[in-house]
Amino acid sequence: MRTVLTAFVFIVLGLTPIRAADIYLYGDSTQRGVSVFNNEPVQNPFAPGVLLQAFLNSEFGVGTHQVRNFAQGGLTLGNALEQPLYDGMTIVEHIAAHRPDLVIANFGINGAYEPELTPALHREQYAMLKAATEQAGGVFFYQTPNPMDNGHNGILDAMVAAVM
After folding, report:
1. Which of 11, 71, 79, 142 would bridge with 32, disulfide CB 3.0–4.6 Å?
2. Closest CA to 24 of 159, 144, 140
3. How distant, in Å, are the alpha carbons of 58, 65, 98, 164 from that of 18?
């Protein structure tokens, strides 16, 4: 498995130990690694960004690549596109200002319950985020919301299918 992950990092993402890369994670509580149990938020010590940073450190050495997690609980991609939630900037402005090498986005669980969010709008919003990332010189990676269908009545399936 480690070889597959290393190949993914080298080939698909183009990361190497020679050039440092900034990796920005955006999304909701799933990306942040926060769950709610008995109406209390619980931080997962093995959140996606933490695991990715640990893997990159083991493969390339500590400090070669930096993972920064900007995810916020309760957030939707619509919020991130419209509101200055990142150092007073929208997500598109934040990406343009910082020019990360890789953007990993995981939005969908909160937005799936907004009546105005259709699969087509979800796809359009992700297309805007992908375009902003590529315009800033970065690689965009769409991470599907997890869980795909855990009491969400298939809503997320349609959202993900629209993007894929």
Report:
1. 71
2. 140
3. 15, 10, 20, 32
Going by C-alpha positions, the residue among 83, 137, 80 that lies closest to residue 106 is 80
pTM of the entire predicted model: 0.83
**What mean pLDDT is predicted for residues 48-54?**
89
Run of H or E residues at 66: strand 65-69
- Under 8 Å between Cβ of 122 and 77: yes
| DSSP class of 143 | P
Distance CA 39, CA 45 (A): 19
CA 8 to chain centre: 17
**pLDDT at residue number 157:** 62
Tell me the C-alpha to C-alpha distance, in Å, between residue 45 and each of 60, 105, 152: 22, 20, 25
